Every structure is written in C-alpha cells, then in structure tokens.
Amino acid sequence: MTKKEFISKIAERCDVPVKEVDKFFDAFVFVLKEELIAEERVQLSDLGTFTTQIKRGRTTTNPFSPTKEVITVPEKRVVKYKPSKYLRELVDF
Fold this sequence. Notes:
Blueprint: H1 3-14, H2 18-37, E1 42-44, E2 48-55, E3 58-61, E4 70-73, E5 76-83, H3 85-91
Antiparallel strand pairs: 1-2, 2-5, 3-4
C-alpha cells in the first residue's frame, strides 16, 4: 500500500478531505522523526513502540570484493519498532 492509498482510505473512513488527512499524516511523520532524533521513545497504544538503539560497529569481509578485503563498519543509531501485543495478536490469525 502506498502513502497515497493509505491516506485515501483514512479520508474515506473518516469522511475528511484527502488534503486534510495528508497534512495530518505529514505532521505525524514529522513529529515521529523529531522525537526519534531526540532519542525519545514513542509509544502508540494500539500500534506499537518506536525507539532508537546503537548498533555496534564491527569488522567484516566485503562480499563484493574479489579479495574479500576486511572492512570496518562503524557503529550507528538505528530505529527499532516493536508492535503492540494487540497488533501482534490481530495479525497472527
């Protein structure tokens, strides 16, 4: 499902113009990104929890190199999502 299809379904279900839903959705995504950048935890009761976590740096071989050279992958912060129990049970039919 694309963003456009998602927004259209919400607009239809809530009887709200697509432009308004699009504006709301963009604001939702903006706030979610801002909170994750600030390393805050975002918990949405029926949906799940978004957090960030540091992925440890490591040394590995480059699979695309003919010599299988050893490269160092630096640590980085990644987004983690854990679906709510309600959503997990709903999807696991």
